[in-house]
């Protein structure tokens, strides 16, 4: 009998991409604005600059002789962030449209401006 491993988490494309400007809409950092540093598709998470700062207690190692308490960003769920439009400068939802050349682009729902450069 062959055993199969099931992964229940669906990894879909995120509505935000690297270097997008986003606003946090829920959680302890609600209202903060930052740039997306990394998108983790398999875990449905994003890493945002200066948001969700956590302290890690590290032991001294060969790389880090001192050890101690290190602060850094932790990933948060991508449903907790909204993309900020470049034209209307407000957090808004996006839709996808196909251009004449067949390229898919993200479009702001508030001002109907193309978000992708």
Tell me what the structure shows.
With 117 residues, this protein is an all-beta fold. The protein folds into two domains: 13-84, SH3 type barrels (Roll); 87-117. It is 0% helix and 37% strand. The chain has strands at residues 21-24, 33-40, 45-48, 53-58, 68-73, 76-77, 81-83, 94-98, 104-108. The strands form three sheets. It has a five-stranded antiparallel β-sheet, with no helix packed on it. A two-stranded antiparallel ribbon has the order 4-5. A two-stranded antiparallel ribbon has the order 8-9. The chain is elongated, with a radius of gyration of 18 Å. The mean pLDDT is 89.
Features of the shown structure:
117 residues, mainly beta, SH3 type barrels, 2 domains, 5-stranded antiparallel beta sheet, two-stranded antiparallel sheet, elongated
């Amino acid at each position: 009998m062959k055993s199969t491993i099931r992964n229940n988490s669906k990894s879909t494309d995120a509505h935000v991409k690297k270097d997008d400007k986003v606003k946090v809409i829920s959680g302890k950092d609600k209202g903060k604005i930052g740039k997306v540093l990394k998108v983790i598709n398999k875990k449905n998470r994003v890493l945002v600059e200066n948001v969700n700062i956590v302290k890690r207690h590290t032991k001294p190692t060969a790389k880090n002789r001192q050890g101690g308490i290190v602060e850094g960003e932790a990933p948060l769920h991508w449903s907790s962030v909204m993309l900020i439009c470049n034209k209307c400068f407000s957090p808004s939802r996006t839709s996808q449209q196909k251009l004449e050349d067949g390229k898919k682009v993200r479009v702001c729902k508030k001002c109907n401006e193309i978000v992708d450069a």
